[in-house]
Amino acid sequence: MRKNNILIGIILIFVGTLYLLNIIANIDILSFSFLWPILLFFIGLSLDIKFFRERSNGGSLIPGGILIVLGVFFFIQHITDYSFSEYSWAFYSLSLAVGFLQYYFLYRKDRTLLIIGLFFLITFVVRFISIYFRDMLPWLSMELVLPIILIIVGILVIIKK
Questions:
Q1: The whole model's pTM is what?
Q2: Which long-range CB contacts under 8 A does 148-154 form with residues at least 24 apart?
Q3: Using one digit for the tens of pLDDT, what is the confidence trace for 85-96?
Q4: Quick one: which of 35, 56, 59, 37 has its CA closest to 47?
């Protein structure tokens, strides 16, 4: 019962602080467009906390990692007025990479999970670089991403045998 009171107290303090900031700073903090990324983040965080409390089932790690990354990304998108929207697909890949790698490193050392996580991480890096350096490296396009990733994963599979 004591844990529930602490959680309810923290939620009330959080909502009260948001409401106060809404009144003082005249920022529409309590709008759904502002709160849904925070909600994604806290759902993901609660899934990860569930794993660390129970240590019995790692199944919550993959969606937890995905939701944490997406919550942070969409929150940054909202406060910057979506000025980084061209990076969205890169961060979708990053969220999947974090989910799978978190599962691999914290719960089960399955090589397939590592390969899947690295695949999405490499996809993120290549996509991010291709967007960020598109003026300096015009030859680097998304058409090259899949073949490059397949080659790298193939090399990793051969090396690990």
A1: 0.72
A2: 148/122, 149/119, 149/122, 149/123, 152/122, 153/115, 153/118, 153/119, 153/122
A3: 888 888 999 999
A4: 59
